[in-house]
Amino acid sequence: MPEVEITGRDVAPAAMTLDSITYSDQGDVSLAGHGAPGARLRALVDGQEMGAGAVADDTGWRIDLPDLARGVYALRIEL
Q1: Which of 1, 6, 17, 46 has its CB 3.0 to 4.6 Å from that of 33, i.e. a possible disulfide?
Q2: What does R_g of the chain's alpha carbons equal in angstroms?
Q3: What integer best gives the mean pLDDT of the chain?
């Protein structure tokens, strides 16, 4: 089963959520959730950073992973 881990150094893990993992018709992957406005995020796939972003003022965030090949991965979101 794929593994998803959310970690943070300065923010309690409950302060950030991963609400969805979506796939486009072309196979691109997008991650989305909520967190503390201004927090910086990194998405790691099998230990390699594949994307980064920041939480918006409305508490939403999104990171696109357009170059992720089909497969099973360990996903980690870091603050």
Answers
A1: 17
A2: 12
A3: 86
